[in-house]
Amino acid sequence: MPPQPPLTATITTSSQSIPPLNSIAPSIFVPLTDDISTFSTPRDRIARLKHILQTIDLQHDGVKQNLLYMFEREKQRLILAAQEAEEKMGVQRVREGVTREEEDEVVRNMEARPSKKEKGEVGEYDPWKGEQQQGFVVPQPDMGVRERAVADLINVIERGVLDLQAFEKYTEGIRTKYLELLEREVVRLEEAGKRPEERTRTD
């Protein structure tokens, strides 16, 4: 096997100086875009709903950028930790295959039941609603430094994709709700300006 090149990270610091990514909850905090000292209350319901929709978009963009930063920082921490371990132990030989036990674990994970919603129907994993995926077990084989780093990086990527997809779905639901409220309010005002015989009957 040819010698392996040393692991390198794109930032020069210690892995101990980067906190592990244990929760994505802090991503909800984004800087204010309006000066609260000069903020004026929307003049009517339509203006207020439009402002809410604008705020949802700004919050969405800010949280998404925070999430991407947190995933990138965790990636750099894992690479640095592996680099530091290799500097102490030297470059280790990389296994060329998987064990029978690992193959069996993969099959068990593929056969595991997906998480369920309250009424028992099969649902999607959604960490933004506090759901927990059931039946999945991450294999813990006897890995070298490089193999463990790769496995951890893959896990960060997979969880990051799930978190981003769940966040997009969560935000879209909120945006849709306020868009419908805005459309109903516009229709209500249009109907209010018509003569009784011109108004759309709803009964």
Automatic annotation (TrEMBL):
Residue segments, region Disordered: 102-126
Superkingdom of origin organism: Eukaryota
Protein name: Uncharacterized protein
Organism of this sequence: Chaetomium thermophilum (strain DSM 1495 / CBS 144.50 / IMI 039719)
Classification lineage: Eukaryota, Fungi, Dikarya, Ascomycota, Pezizomycotina
